[in-house]
Amino acid sequence: MNKIWFTSDHHFGHNGIIEYAGRPFKSVEEMDEIMIQKWNEKVNDKDAVYYLGDFALNRPERLKEILKRLNGSTYLITGNHEVTALACKKRFEWVKDYYELKINDDTVKGGKQKIILFHYAIRNWNGKGRGSFHLYGHSHGTLEEDMNSLSFDIGVDNHDFYPLEYNEVKAIMLKKESALKILNRDIPTVM
Fold first, then answer.
1. DSSP type of residue 12
2. Which backbone phi and psi does 21 adopt, to 5 degrees?
3. Residue 91: helix, strand or coil by DSSP?
């Protein structure tokens, strides 16, 4: 079965992110290689990766080399640092500013889990009170986790530089204090 993965904020080729985000790398080359390795440890060629922005800050030629090495089909939600990624636009399945993904899941009421994908954290999103999830990046772990919200920062700085698979995302959401109340609540049908 093909898996669905989520990640963001690799900042491939960006020297400044090592200090800014407190990353444990000695050089940008080391950072890029370890992040490519961690991506490919999890993602296989038939998987889908939803990438929530800030892919790279390097030359398009270098990014093309990196993209060739990454497993899976990548869907890009744009961030605020996408000049290089947009120069390599054809490598992505699509590029959007925002996306509402629906994943088939028999354990969810209605059989589909809605996930709102956006580079930035938002306080209110479509279906928030009906169990939809919101994944975002951009903040590099600087936002305090809200245990009463079905959202979190999917960025690599929060997940040991690995992407997270849908079931890992779901497990994190189910640990949130309000999740069971929201997800098990009977929602009146709107006519």
1. B
2. -95, 0
3. helix
Amino acid letter at 140?
H
Measured distance CA(49)–CA(81) in Å, rounded: 18
Write the single-letter amino acid at 83: V
The fold of 4-184 is: Purple Acid Phosphatase; chain A, domain 2 (3.60.21)
Strand arrangement, sheet containing 98-104? 98-104, 112-118, 133-136, 151-153
pLDDT along the chain (191 residues), means of 10: 93 93 95 98 97 93 94 96 91 96 92 96 91 93 85 96 97 78 50 37
Which residues lie closer than 8 Å to 166 by C-beta, 6 or more apart? 3, 4, 5, 6, 103, 105, 113
Q: Would you say 6 and 154 are in contact if contact means Cβ atoms under 8 Å apart?
A: yes
Global pTM reads 0.91
CB atoms within 10 A of CB 18: 17
